[in-house]
Specification:
It is a single chain. Helix content is 31%, strand content 31%. By secondary structure, the chain is of the alpha+beta class. It has 4 domains: 2-225, 3-Layer(aba) Sandwich (Rossmann fold); 233-331, Elongation Factor Tu (Ef-tu), domain 3, CATH 2.40.30.10; 349-444, Rossmann fold (3-Layer(aba) Sandwich), CATH 3.40.50.10050; 460-577, Translation factors (Elongation Factor Tu (Ef-tu), domain 3, Beta Barrel), CATH 2.40.30. The strands form 7 sheets. Strands 3-4-5-2-8-9-11-10 form an 8-stranded mixed sheet, with helices on both faces. Helix 9 (356-368) packs across helix 12. The longest helix has 26 residues, at 430-455. It is elongated and about 100 Å long.
Length: 582
C-alpha cells in the first residue's frame, strides 16, 4: 500500500486565469530542473514532491507542511469539463480544487457554477485570487511568494488587497462557506483559504502549491492510500482519433495499476463494453515521435489508451480493469442508469450534454425541479432529438424542448427546430440550462395568457363601493374595487344567481380611461343595462360572465391561470353551470 498523488482540478470563470495558473505551475516545474525533463502526462501535468518543496521554500506565514505525498497531479483541462468528466461511483475523482477568481472582477456566472459543483461533490478547495499585478499601484517583484512581495508594497496597496479579499469573503459566505486570507486562517478544516497571486508574475505560487500539497495531505490522507499493484481504475477525460492508432481514450488513473494487455470495461450509449489494451502511451517531450509506449502505469497518472472497439466510448465514463465482466458490467451500468436513458414512456424534455458528469449534474437539477426527462445522453443535438421533442410537444408543449450543454447542434437539427417551432435551449453553464428552460416555459405561458386574454373573458370579481354611485342608469356610473382576477372593457357582469346585469362600457381610474383593471384597484365603471339600486346595490359582489364554452377552453389550458384565478373560475363555473338558461 502507498499514498498516491492528489488529483487537482482548476475551476473558475472564463478569462479569470485558469490556464495561466496551469502554465505557471508547469513553468515553475521546468525552472526547478533540467530543461526538457518536466513530467508531462496525457491530460495532466505532474509536480513531484521535490519540485513543490523547492517552489514553496519562499512561502512565508508559518504554514510549513512536511510533505509525504509523492507529488500533485494537475488536470490540464481547466474548468467544469475536467471536474465533471472525472467520474467514479461516488462522484468526481478530483481530490482537491483551485477556484480561480479575478481579484478585480470578483464572482461571475461560472464562478458560481464552480462553487455549486464543488459543494455538490463536497470537494475541498482553495481560492486563487488572481491578477494582483493588475491592481492599481502593485509592483511586481522577482519572487514566487505573495507574502515576500506584499511586504514591499505601499500601505494603500496592502489596504486595496484586503478590500478585495473581504469582498470575496462576503460573496463566498453567501454560498455557506467561511473563508479568510490563507495566512490568517485559524482552522483549515473549517475555513476556505484565499491565496492572492499573479499567475503572470508567479507571485503567490509558492503559497498556493504549499497549501494544495499540505491540505490534501492533511485532510485526504485516507482517500489517497491505494494498492499500487491493485486493480486499475480511472476515468475517460477525452475520446480522440489519432493517426495510426484509431480511436483512443485519454484516461486519468486514480487507483491501482494499468498494464498493456489488461482487459478494461467502459461505457457507451448502448451500455458497458470491454476491450483489451493494445498500447499505453505517454507524451514524448524530447524525441521526434509524438508518444512513448509504456508497459504499465501506476496511479495517479494521465495516460492514453489505444485499443480496438473504443468507438462510442463516453467522456466521463469510468475505465476499470475487468475482474468479472458480468459483475463489472452490472456495477458500472447500475451506477449510471439514472443518467443515460432514452425513450422513457412519459413525456419529458430531451437533454444532450458534453459528458456523463454534465448529464448527471443537469439530470439532478431537473429532477429536483420536478421537470420530467424523456431522453438524456451525451453527444451533439441532431434532427432525431428535435423529432423526439416534437412528439412530446403534442402531449405537453411545455416539455417539448431540447436542452443542450456545451454540445454542437447540427444544421438539420436547427432547420427542423425552426420549422416545427421546437426550442433548443443551450448554455455552457450548467445551472443556466435549467434557468433558461424555466424562462422559456414562463415566456410561453405569458404569451398564451396574452393571446387568451384577447379572445376569452377572464375570471373577475368586483365589489360595489358604498356611497359611490354617480349615475343610476343609461349608463349607470359607480365605484368598484376588483377583489379577484381582472375585468376589461366590454366584459358582461353577472350576479351570484347567474343573471347578467349589464356590460362594461368605460373604465376610469384617477381621471384616466383604462381598458383593464386588476386585483386591488379601485375605479369607476360606466355600464349599460344596469339600473343602480334595482339591478345592483352597494356592497354587492359581481362576477365577469364566462360562458360554458369559454370555461371549457380554460380547462384545456389550465396553466394560463394562476391558483387564485383557478379558484375564482370554479366559483364562476358553479354559478354558470347551475343556471338553467345557460
Amino acid at each position: 500500500m502507498h499514498v498516491r498523488s492528489p488529483i487537482v482540478a482548476v475551476l473558475g470563470h472564463v478569462d479569470h486565469g485558469k490556464t495561466t495558473i496551469l502554465d505557471a505551475v508547469r513553468g515553475s516545474a521546468v525552472a526547478t530542473k533540467e530543461a526538457g525533463k518536466i513530467t508531462q502526462m496525457i491530460g495532466a501535468s505532474y509536480l513531484r514532491k521535490e519540485e513543490i518543496e523547492t517552489i514553496s521554500k519562499k512561502a512565508k506565514g508559518g504554514m510549513i507542511f512536511n510533505l509525504k505525498i509523492p507529488g500533485l497531479l494537475f488536470i490540464d483541462t481547466p474548468g467544469h469539463e475536467a471536474f465533471t468528466n472525472l467520474r467514479d461511483r461516488g462522484g468526481s475523482i478530483a481530490d482537491i480544487a483551485i477556484l480561480v477568481v479575478d481579484i478585480a472582477q470578483g464572482f461571475q456566472p461560472q464562478t458560481i457554477e464552480s462553487i455549486r459543483i464543488l459543494k455538490q461533490y463536497k470537494t475541498p478547495f482553495v481560492i486563487a485570487a488572481n491578477k494582483i499585478d493588475l491592481l492599481n499601484g502593485w509592483t511586481d517583484y522577482p519572487t514566487t511568494s505573495f507574502m515576500e512581495s506584499l511586504a514591499k508594497q505601499p500601505d494603500y496597496v496592502k489596504e486595496r488587497i484586503d478590500e478585495k479579499i473581504y469582498t470575496i469573503m462576503g460573496k463566498i459566505s453567501e454560498h455557506g462557506f467561511d473563508s479568510e486570507r490563507f495566512d490568517r486562517v485559524n482552522d483549515f478544516s473549517k475555513q476556505i483559504s484565499i491565496v492572492p497571486l499573479s499567475a503572470k508574475s508567479r507571485e503567490g505560487l509558492s503559497e498556493l502549491l504549499m497549501l494544495i500539497g499540505g491540505l490534501s495531505q492533511k485532510f485526504l490522507e485516507g482517500k489517497l492510500v491505494i494498492d499500487e499493484k491493485g486493480r486499475g481504475r480511472g476515468s475517460i477525460i477525452e475520446v480522440k482519433e489519432e493517426k495510426g492508432l484509431g480511436t483512443t481514450i485519454d484516461v486519468i488513473l486514480y487507483d491501482g495499476l494499468l498494464r498493456k494487455n489488461d482487459e478494461i470495461i467502459f461505457l457507451t450509449r448502448e451500455g458497458a463494453r470491454k476491450t483489451k489494451i493494445r498500447a499505453l502511451l505517454e507524451p514524448n517531450v524530447s524525441g521526434k515521435e509524438k508518444y512513448n509506449y509504456i508497459d504499465e502505469i501506476p496511479a495517479a497518472a494521465g495516460v492514453k489508451i489505444a485499443a480496438p472497439e473504443l468507438e462510442g466510448a463516453l467522456p466521463g465514463s469510468p475505465v476499470d480493469v475487468v475482474t468479472d465482466f458480468d459483475k463489472n458490467k452490472k456495477e458500472i451500468e447500475s451506477r449510471f442508469k439514472n443518467v443515460l436513458f432514452e425513450g422513457r414512456k412519459d413525456a419529458g424534455v430531451v437533454l444532450r450534454a458534453d459528458s456523463l458528469g454534465s448529464v448527471e449534474a443537469i439530470v439532478k437539477l431537473l429532477e429536483e425541479e420536478g421537470v420530467k426527462i424523456k431522453d438524456a445522453g451525451t453527444g451533439r443535438i441532431t434532427r432525431k432529438e428535435i423529432l423526439t421533442a416534437e412528439a412530446v410537444s403534442g402531449e405537453n408543449k411545455y416539455l417539448g424542448a431540447v436542452l443542450g450543454f456545451n454540445v454542437d447542434i447540427t444544421d438539420d437539427a436547427r432547420e427542423e427546430a425552426d420549422e416545427q417551432k421546437i426550442p433548443i435551449i443551450w448554455s455552457n453553464i450548467i445551472y443556466k440550462v435549467l434557468e433558461n428552460y424555466r424562462d422559456w416555459v414562463k415566456d410561453t405561458k405569458d404569451a398564451e395568457k396574452r393571446d387568451a386574454g384577447k379572445s376569452i373573458t377572464w375570471p373577475g370579481k368586483i365589489k360595489l363601493l358604498p356611497n359611490h354611485c354617480f349615475r343610476v342608469s343609461k349608463p349607470a356610473i359607480f365605484g368598484v374595487e376588483v377583489v379577484d382576477g381582472k375585468i376589461k372593457k366590454g366584459y358582461k357582469l353577472m350576479n351570484k344567481s347567474g343573471n347578467v346585469v349589464g356590460e362594461i362600457r368605460e373604465m376610469q381610474r384617477d381621471k384616466d380611461k383604462i381598458d383593464e383593471a386588476t386585483v386591488g384597484m379601485q375605479l369607476a365603471l360606466s355600464c349599460d343595462g344596469i339600473f343602480y339600486g334595482k339591478d345592483v346595490t352597494e356592497g354587492e359582489e359581481l362576477y365577469t360572465y364566462i360562458s360554458k364554452a369559454e370555461i371549457e377552453r380554460f380547462d384545456a389550458q389550465p396553466s394560463i391561470l394562476n391558483d387564485e384565478e383557478k379558484v375564482l373560475l370554479d366559483e364562476i363555473r358553479k354559478i354558470v353551470v347551475g343556471n338553467p338558461f345557460e
